[in-house]
Amino acid sequence: MSAMNRIARLATISLLLLAVLPANAAESALQKVGARAADLYRQGKYAEAVSAGQEALKIAEKTFAPSHREVATALSNLAEYLRSQGNYPEAESLLKRALAIDRKVSGEEHPDVAIDLNNLGLLYDSLGRHAEAEPLYNQAIQIDQKSLGPDNPTVATDLNNLAEAYRAEGKLAPADAFYRRALRILENQPVPDNRALATVLNNLGALSIAQGKDAAAEESLARALEFWRKTVRADHPDIATTLRLLGSVQLSLREYPQAETSLTEVVAIDDKNRDKDSRQLSQDLSDLGMALVALRKYGAAETPFKRALALDEQTYGKEHLLVASSLGDLAEVYRGEGKYKLAEPLYKRALAIDEKILGPQHPDVASDLNSLGALYFLEGRPGEAESILKRALAIKSAALGADSPELLRILDNYAIVLRALKRDGEASSIEARAREIRAKLPPSPS
User: Fold this and answer.
1) What is the pLDDT of residue 278?
2) What average pLDDT does this structure show over 21-36?
3) 70 in Cβ contact with 64 (< 8 Å)
């Protein structure tokens, strides 16, 4: 999330609305339509913002000369609304027009040029072209530091955006330094910009996750959430973004009640979004289901997992790896509830999909077999369980090595089944193998 530079440009428009009286009816109309577009964008109503932004551009082009600053502003704002909808080619064309106008009208080192550079960099980030975005952000930083001063909030915007490009490229140490410098600038402002603070804290939290610093991530994301709630409506997509990250961290930290609360709100926001992304909703539902399973709320977990499966089948078709994963999740819930007859066909479907797509010797196939073998044991079918688990162990051993930690679940299940079949000697051998693997594991963090 790095849309702070858009806010800088939109805030400039809002200030002009308060400070400048329109010279004629056309300028008045432009200001009103531009303000409406900006407000729709802030609310996350991107399709409506595009429509209003297109209207603002038409008025600007009719009212002013082709190279007027107001035309550049309308171009830049419309480009951001289009970028938010994923219309990157048109957004890029508009941004380049805006940049050319501002350079001609204001010169190479004007803050408006820095805004255009930021906007174009953000577009390239959206396209994964981070190496192209970096020099644009660096140019914007140099311009704004010189023209506005090193502690200006706009410089914080520039630093945040450059840090985002670095984070995307895996350059975590410099990204961390730039985020923290941006945060210091924003925290030292006499009037806090809650949206900007929320953005930087959200991004810093995401970086901490990538660094494996879950506790630090949780702290940053919780602070980000506080600022978002002061800034945007309760079902805004930006709140969902932060909650989504926070929920994942809480799952990692085994704070399952907190994760349930966060992810329940995420799903509620997804459901209110008229243009909801079914892929994202499916993932959010799955994450919520995982939190509920961890809390042993199996009955409650059924609904999100069923919904996730239906969405995945609708999006990808009946035979897809994500569908297999959703089938396995729902089967695990049924197994936890003791609904073995409902779980079995789901496990078998997942196994068939993975075998077809990945091949019969893939480690994921071994995991499917392990789940099915464990279910057969619970159903009182140890003989069938033994043959399936034996196959699972052979596949995963061949793929990952005889002493891979990923064998432990299969080994544990296999030993239990062998004990049930009164094959104690074989069970002891399997148990000894598991102990040897565990002895080589690094100590668990305290």
Assistant:
1) 86
2) 76
3) yes
| CA of residue 307 relative to chain centroid, distance | 20
Average pLDDT across the chain, whole number: 91
Which domains are seen in the chain, by residue range?
359-446 (1.25.40.10)
How far apart are the C-alpha atoms of 321 and 359, rounded to whole Å? Answer: 12
Range 303-315 average pLDDT: 96
State phi, psi for 441 to the nearest 5 degrees.
-75, 145
Q: How does pLDDT run across 222-241, given as a tens digit for each residue?
A: 999 999 999 999 999 999 99
CB atoms near residue 235 (< 10 Å) = 16
Mind listing the pLDDT tens digit for each residue in 173-183? 999 999 999 99
pTM: 0.81
First to last CA, the chain: 33
Q: pLDDT tens digits for 357-389?
A: 999 999 999 999 999 999 999 999 999 999 999
As a whole number of angstroms, the distance between CA 164 and CA 190 comes to 26
Stretch 10-24: mean pLDDT: 36
pLDDT of residue 305: 98
